[in-house]
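Memo to structure team: turn this sequence into structure tokens by end of day. - J.P.
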Amino acid sequence: MATFVKIACKSDLPPSGEAREFTVGEKILCVANCGGELTAMDNVCLHRGGPLGQGVVEGGKVICPWHGWQYDPKTGEAAHSPAAKVTVYAIKVEGEDVLVEI
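Reply from structure team:
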């Protein structure tokens, strides 16, 4: 059964247009801020394993810093192929805590 787990404090979140990496147990997640809307997804790009949380957000997509693959942060789908998809996680802010459903 999935449960919400605290990954950060509200003050740790990326500003609009940016992404950051957050560790949850042995997993690293990419949390992106798309115009004030927060999303969470797996941090590993399907192309060559690049760190999505070190990329940028442009045009509503998280762009991998290694080779430019773009992902929809709401669905996890790669822009060039909906079949290429990273896992997306529910995220919420409660008070000062940032929680992700794992």
